[in-house]
Amino acid sequence: MKYKISLFLLLIFALNSCQNDNEKRLAENAKEAKKNEKIFNNISKAWVFIDEPINEVSEKNATSWNEWREFLKELGEKPRKTIGAFQKKSTAISKKAIALNNNIPAEFNQPQIKSRISILITKVKMMDLFIHLSTIPDEKVTFLIGEINKELVSLERQMDKIVEKNKIPKEEGEEDFLRMLDTTRAIPNQVKDPNLSIN
Fold it and tell me: Which SS3 state, helix, strand or coil, does residue 199 take?
């Protein structure tokens, strides 16, 4: 009889304990869902990229430079439903940003453009990294979205500067002078070894 009472009390205690655990889990899940919803809303509000060319040069590049056009197109498509959709879009944007290094038009295949593309890729990769963390730092993601927009503007303005600079007519003989400078830089300075001098 004592065993039956002990077993009965133990069973009641276990059921009560399970019920408390379930309530705790439900409360934690609700808290986590609320936190995730806040993160989703913050990222969703901030997810606005400059996907339209800001000048004629960039617009022209969007028609002739396939990688640039695809990158801008990817930026323009905003995910809607879940944080997972933002993660997938971030990965897609990262891939398109890396592709910008391929087939850069000859006119823009210069260090100024390459460095700006590298900075843009770095910031896009950082955003992709942060958005894939288990606990997403939404303030860092939203900050990086703004930084990516700044880099886009910087890149497009540099393209415009290069086109404007190329429109300036060169003076007579300037081409020859520039070619001569390039060839003199290509010839290494020869250091004379005093031990090899002929007497």
Answer: coil
- Rounded to whole angstroms, the Cα distance separating 199 from 3 reads 117
Closest CA to 152 of 35, 48, 79: 48
pTM of the model: 0.71
Q: 3-state DSSP call for residue 192?
A: coil
Residues ≥6 apart with Cβ < 8 Å to 136? 39, 43, 83, 130
Q: Tens-of-pLDDT digits for all 199 residues of the chain?
A: 666 676 666 656 665 565 656 677 777 777 777 887 888 888 888 888 887 777 777 777 777 788 888 888 888 888 888 888 888 999 999 998 998 888 888 888 888 888 988 999 999 999 999 988 888 888 888 899 899 899 988 888 888 888 888 777 766 766 777 677 766 555 555 656 666 655 5
Q: Do 90 and 189 contact (CB within 8 A), yes or no?
A: no
Do the Cβ atoms of 133 and 117 come closer than 8 Å? no
Tokens for 184, please give them: 């003199």
Nearest alpha-carbon partner for 72 in 86, 87, 92, 102: 92
Decide: 130 and 140 in contact? Cβ < 8 Å.
yes
Residue 133 to residue 55: CA distance in whole angstroms = 36
